[in-house]
Amino acid sequence: MDKVPILTEVERALLNEVQSGLPVDPEPFRVLGEKFGLSEAEVLAMLNRFKEAGYIRRMGAIFDSRKLGYVSTLCAAKVSEDQLKPVSDYINQLTEVTHNYLREHEYNMWFTGIAHSKERLQEIIQDLETRFGVQVLNLPALKFFKINVNFDFKGGGAAQC
Amino acid sequence: MLTDLDKAIIRELQGDLPLVPHPYAQVAKKLNIDEEELLDRIRWMQDRGRSRRLGAAIRHREAGFTANAMIVWRVAEEKAEEVGRKLAACPEVTHCYLRPEIPGWPYNLYTMVHGQSRQECEALAAQLSEKVGIEDYRILYSTRELKKSSMRYYLHETESS
Q1: Residue A114 in contact with residue A65, Cβ under 8 Å?
Q2: Residue B49 CA neighbour count, 13 Å, CB half
């Protein structure tokens, strides 16, 4: 079981803030610090710690694949226990695949693909099917209601739905 | 339209921004442009929605969100829009998409929730179910993260958008 990190209130606030956006300013960390009463050096030290601890994977831009002219899909594959390793090794080395998870279901391998064209995605799926004899569901989004990956570090609150 | 410079900027910003007082100046230098020009192009891409955000990508598992659940819902086509919007409005839902219904897989709305335990995800799913009045749903927990990366766009200079 992973340990839930213990963060101070200001650390949580900073983590929440840097997820939603870094100021587009020559000195983004100084600007960020002003919000929380921290110096630029303190902000940088905190962010370095978060990276070392592995909470932050990277600091950078996230692009809207559709607006850059790319297409995406979600695929689910039914993979037998003995095929898990070769199939996941194959899938993971594809630059078009950004996420791949094992999930508790008959369709157990769920991965996302982003490519230049629908044809390229189709080719990847067909290739998987012929190479490994696995069944793959192709589930491209028809509508995007929400694409947001901010995690709330404030925590403790019950669902507000 | 994206210029070659925009694509070069995208290639830089999809990587890791250095944790230094003037990170944009460092990137601009690499691209052989002024810092101010880089900031302008970033703002332009953000205004057009091409860049959704510039900030920290979180490793949710390391950060304590150990239960990652995809909840799939079976919703009548004519209600999908309304239900999708309602689910997307919940702060705990990080992603919400409509995907095609296919033979043998009747679910069409997909939501992601992240919690600190399975119980938390289950309770949340029950709450969401009650809120939208949809009882036919399944929770697919991830048991292993096989790959998690950010998409690398325009890897080859010749790629067009």
Answers
A1: yes
A2: 5
Contact state of B23 with A28 under an 8 Å Cβ cutoff: yes
Q: Are B35 and B75 members of one domain?
A: no
CATH assignment of A71-138? 3.30.70.3460
Query: How far is A116 from A93, CA to CA, in rounded Å?
Result: 17
Residues of B in contact with A144 (CB under 8 A): 96-97
- Burial readout B68-94 (b: 16 or more C-beta within 10 A, e: otherwise): bbbbbbebeeeebeebbebbbebebbb
| H-state helical runs in chain A | 9-20, 28-36, 40-52, 84-92, 118-132
Task: Look up the domain containing B101 and give its range.
Answer: 67-141
Total domains, chain B: 2
Residues of B in contact with A159 (CB under 8 A): 90, 92, 123-124, 127-128
Q: Is 0.90 exceeded by the ipTM?
A: no
Interchain pair A60, B14: CB under 8 A: yes
CB–CB contact B142 A143 (8 Å): no
Mutant choice from B58, B74, B124, B129 vs A, greatest count of A C-beta within 10 A: B58
B159 is a domain residue: no
Please tell me whether residues B39 and B73 are part of one structural domain: no
Per-residue pLDDT of chain B (161 residues; tens, 9 = 90+): 789 999 999 999 999 999 999 999 999 999 999 999 999 999 999 999 999 889 998 887 777 777 789 999 999 999 999 999 999 999 889 899 999 999 889 999 999 998 888 999 999 999 999 999 999 999 999 899 999 888 888 886 545 44
Strand partners, A136: A77
